[in-house]
Target: Na+/H+ antiporter NhaD
Amino acid sequence: MIGKHLLPTAFMALLSSQAQAGVQETPQLLDLTASVYGYLALLIFLLAYVFVVMEERLALRKSKPVIVAAGLIWVLVGLAYRQQGDQVTAGAELRLYILDYAELFLFLLAAMTFVNMLEERRVFEALRTWLVSRGFSLRSIYWITGVLTFCISPIADNLSTALLMGAVVLAVGNHNYRFISVGCINVVVAANAGGAFSPFGDITTLMVWQQGHVSFTQFSYLLLPALVNWLIPAALMSLAIKNGRPAGSQRHQRMKKGGVTIMLMFLGTIIASVLVHSMLHLPPVLGMMTGLGVLKLYGYYLSLHDPVFREQGHITHHHAENTSNHSMLRGDHTGVVRRFDIFKVVERASWDTLMFFYGIVLCVGGLATLGYLADFSTLLYGSLGIPLANSLIGLLSALVDNIPIMFAVLSMDPGMTLDQWLLATLTVGTGGSLLSIGSAAGVALMGQAQGTYTFMSHLKWSWAILLGYVASIFCHLWLTGL
Model:
């Protein structure tokens, strides 16, 4: 009985604390970068990021070190402010960063569930086998995969799109290692470029949109610069591909029941999120979560009409004899006969990415509360000018993940205009293409095409990618007159 009333009581206490925090004045942040706490916090963050960079070598998921680092950094923040006689600011700032993360977490969870649902319905597999079975030449498939990646990544996010088209490149290339290597680089560049002109294309663009610096339609201003960013290196790399015929299976995979319906539901959810944000000025996560609820209701319909299968720890639909014994459809034990379960799709979300994002948001937020971002903003944007500073920040994203970089820029808020925010979005989103470790798409494809698409094979074409990067910046500057 105690537990029955504990949750409502805790919830009301949380609402009360939030309401009290809402009427308080904005806390004044202190510059504690030169303190022992500041130095320790920076050291912890750098050490955690060393583990992130060495993720593949250590086989240690990147979310683990940053989550620990986030907790330690905020303990240091709390101690630093308490030493200054302030026991309020650290907690208030932490709640703000947790709220920012909560909105993005729910938004990404809904988007990932839709993408995983489309994968489970074999929509992407049907597209892949169709391309392989059409008999296109290697050079044609190189351009087709590039164009499709550039067009799909604004909707399905750059990581999911890169994995899909990477599977096509591997299937078509067979043992043609040069084609696979160049094709994977092309997919990475196209995925990052395509994701730069849509709020749904990358986590960084989603962050900029949710912060209100760029509206949904204004992202389209980056379409031409993003296209230039991809086309220049794509054209140069295409010269290395011989125009032969691929070897591949002629069997075509059909979509499972509901594939088209889910695509339409995803599109409707995106539209609803945009309208909720632009017309009602409510967080777009409301539209995404409502759409997720509708998807779950549709999942209930599928659970009643889909063929049963024997679960082996992941979703695999095998035809089995019909059964009306609902007792057989219950339970979570391996080997239990059951129907489609939407919650199994939710489980397949990239939880490592979601938890990594939590750690990064809190780590950067902690450093900002200690005063590091204010100093960095003054040094970078005050002395170099905004266009050059944004261009250099984009290059930095080839070495450091673009999520903390964009979050740092948002936290610094250097007073940029719309065109300058668009430039920052373009450079941070595409600068990671310069190295294979510079973006989630590159890291994922290195794992997918082990031994063929590598850090060094990507580095050989970094000069061409850099040309596209510089050309896209000048294209944006020319269009906007910056």
